[in-house]
Amino acid sequence: MTQYTNQYYLDRQEACESSARSYPREFPVALAKAKGSWVEDVEGKRYIDFLSGAGTLALGHNDDEINQAMVDFIQSGAPLHTLDLMTPAKDRFVEALFSILPKEFAANAKVQFCSPSGTDAVEAAIKLCKTATGRGSIIAFSGGYHGMGHGTMALTGNCKAKNKVANVMPGVQFMPYPYSYRCPMGLGGEAGTKACIAYFERLLKDPESGITKPAAVILEPIQGEGGVIPAPVEFLQAVRRITKELDIPMICDEIQCGMGRSGKVFAFEHAGIIPDVILMSKAVGGGLPMSVVLYDKKLDVWGTGAHAGTFRGNQLAMVAGTIMIRRISDPAFLSEVARKGEKIITHLRSLQDQVSIIGDVRGKGLMIGIEFVDPKGGKDIMGHYEPNGQILCRVQRKLLDYGVIMERGGRNSSVLRCLCPLNISDEDIDLAMEKFDMAVKEVDADVCK
Ligand SMILES: Cc1ncc(COP(=O)(O)O)c(C=O)c1O
Question: CA-based, 20 to 30 A from 314: which of 118, 200, 265, 441?
């Protein structure tokens, strides 16, 4: 068989595929093989994958148990596509899914299978809460990411895509999210969190705030695309307390931070809270497309077909997802995620002390962000150097040369994000960190000279 180069495939992609394509611009490669935490391009070069399908591949590429279960299922003659018809595979998946929910939530929970993108789970949840409350507006948070649909984009903080699309869903009110390093209140730390809570509470309770009672409050317990920003526990607890007092459904978007990524099955568990609605996608289908909304029965006012969609019955995703749920919810597995996350953060903070281009290192479990700054540029209101996406790009490109794939996000695309498989080995972490140090130190020396 003819061996083609990366460039051959990239040229063909550019000729046919929409200019909205994004990852190939960051990682100009064509992938041929993948196993565990590693991928290999068509030229035989291997990379440690700290992107893992934007956090989808919690157990890495081509997990043996998942692959074998899918092969067995295909050979069993079971239907692979069933809309929302019942099957034994679906029954097993739902049982597994309910087994990882907080008990109090599971006792009154309903599940809606959505079209397989996370975006559709968010769309469904918004429709559900609007229908159940009869209200029309939604509260979201700056820096949040909930998808690229007309409704979900309206709930998303990033204005780059929004600026180009007129008339996204109306009725969204943004509130400040406690991003300590670039605190929207100019305070940072505990004082910043307290101010965000006070602002949120005041606006919802002040009869002169101009904000009518919303149908829902939606947030990511750890913002992902916004730059890996874990919400402090007190903030999540306050949002839960206030929304409960005011009878406003609280939606936790766990699409990226859930399924063990934070060291707990759900990131909201760090705060000991229970939301009214939980959104899951990415890893929940064991690496295959799937998205679900789990919600309290009291919201279940939908009539037949209120949220439909053809691809809600992906049986292979249910088979794979059942295995994924069992493996990632094992307490020993979760404590390993937390340990490995701590190990990476400790390493990165020590690197931060040695260079000038890293402004902040933060995260929970294996959801970690490294914010790059320009040490020769201006400072923000907090006294921190401004975020710098160009410096990040140079580090990211060097990393790719050294064989590590790591994606960016955050303000001005200034945050490199570790989203490696949750079962990555210590050896692979060490190797990735070694390469990370090399890339950062080289760019740092150049920037500072
Ligand atoms: C928190 C969160 N919500 C929603 C979405 C949208 O999911 P999808 O890209 O599958 O539509 C994403 C995707 O990155 C996400 O991170």
Answer: 265
pLDDT digits (tens, 9 = 90+) for 219-256: 999 999 999 999 999 999 999 999 999 999 999 999 99
Closest to 48 (Cα-Cα) out of 439, 445, 447, 354? 439
Asked if CATH classification 3.90.1150.10 holds for the domain at 6-63+331-448, the reply, yes or no, is yes
State in Å: Cα 443 to ligand 1 middle: 31
Fold of the 78-328 domain: Aspartate Aminotransferase; domain 2 (3.40.640)
Amino acid 1: pLDDT? 64
Sheet with strand 277-280: strands edge to edge? 109-114, 291-296, 277-280, 250-253, 216-219, 138-141, 172-175
223 alpha carbon – ligand 1 mean position (Å): 11
**Which of 120, 222, 252, 256 to probe ligand 1 with, by most ligand atoms within 8 A of CB?**
256
Residues 6+ apart with CB under 8 A from 88: 78
Domain with CATH 3.40.640.10 in the chain: 78-328
Stretch 17-44: mean pLDDT, rounded? Answer: 96
